[in-house]
Amino acid sequence: MSRHGRWAELLPPTVVILAAIVLWELVVIVFRVPEFVLPGPMAVWAALQKWRAAIWFNAEQTLYTTLVGFALAVVGGMGLGLAVGYSTLVYRALYPLLIGFNSVPKAAIVPVLVIWFGIGTIPAILTAFLISFFPIVVNVSTGLATLEPELQDVLRSLGASKREIFLKVGIPRSLPYFFASLKVSVTLAFVGAVISETVAANRGIGYMMLAASSRFEVPLVFAGLVVVALMGVALFAAFAVIERRLTGWAYRGQSITG
Amino acid sequence: MSGSQPPVEAFVRLDHVTLDYPHEGETVRAIEDVSLTARQGEFVVVAGPSGCGKTTLLKSLAGLLLPTAGTVVVGDMPVRGPQKIVGMAFQNPIMLPWRNILDNVLLPLEIVTPHRERFRRDRAAYMAQAQELLASVGLEGFGERDPWQVSGGQQQRASLCRALIHHPDLLLLDEPFGALDAFTREELWQVLQALWMKRQFTVFLVTHDLREALFLADTVYVMSTRPGHLVYRTTVTLPRPRSLEDTFSAAFTEAYHEVRRRIGEVMAR
Q: Is the pLDDT of residue B269 over 80?
């Protein structure tokens, strides 16, 4: 892609974000919204500056629990997804349980985790894991289940075993689904970690926001939200780049026209 | 059935083959009581209206489907499952999109014995073979391209190479040129004819294009609508290599009309 094309691609989102910030500030000024209800972007920026050290200290913890929980979800989700996609028996046996499990609000699980593991790092990691695990399983198994019969026939007609078909066609074919799920999952892992920290932690962005709101430091609460959003976007972007690198063949349509 | 008698030494033999398969809870009879023989190196074309079980016939030869009744023999062995002496190409080229053209062509060598054991060691030699094969179908220098970077006709040429790279004795072609434009199709007839004359493999090709059938075939079978059975057999004796000009000759036209008439009878039923 040309330099010019890249800039042209970045322009619309930049304009939208700047416009949103300006609108936000204008609303706060025009309607004279008090700072403890809705601080404007300038106030949030000031809070970010003022509490820089505390924000970094807590963000580090959140990033850590998110990434550990996410890593567990990648390993477990990939493994279970492959198993579910490989065998219709495993698929039929496990799917209802998985769906039921996914329907349980993860915030409701945190108190249970606290009883088992106490407050702090472990419940945050586990919540991040539990919430980001499911999309990976579903996507990987979908990638395998939607394998075109013709693609299998090409290999079957050569006498390939089920295992060979799985290795040569199944896994490569499901990789784009896998990476698509990683982008979704990594942001969900953040949600899980922050939820857990809000309920039961003494460190982390979620904890910091809870503490700030109980002291009516509303600008700091918003600063926390901005930091979470930025970290989420950064991780999403990182996995989008990895995805493009490794499964570019699945995106040819966009790279030609885009 | 009319035409000359089947040859004596048969490389492929179908004996009263009937094949049912389950479809939406019912049993569908795809082909019924099909018997034919083909000698080594024979170019057999099965023509018929779509949905008549032509593909099922090919799949039973490939060992992808097993007959409900009757026997299929390829070489000296009854077919009991997928076999390595078969190469197959389909109407869609079905390239693996994450592999470039060359790696797609090499795919069978990673699966079929004895090549799979040697593949890593002799990779350079195999790649040279694949390049040569690609060149023979007019794809010289295309190996490094990804499938989506080449045209449908070029993908189909690559698909033909993939079906032949492991030197199969039997080539099965399921309407391989059906999705191509008329000019590309005619060019690929000639490409296929040249490869066949050079390598002397046995071919079963199914098609509903009768000009294609008569241009390529030693023997043409006409298959009826479902359940498919053979209703007509004719041999084409035009000398090889045939040219496109030959398809406008009087003998060709006469054969064409006869086969077309038989298909018409089948469709009218």
A: no
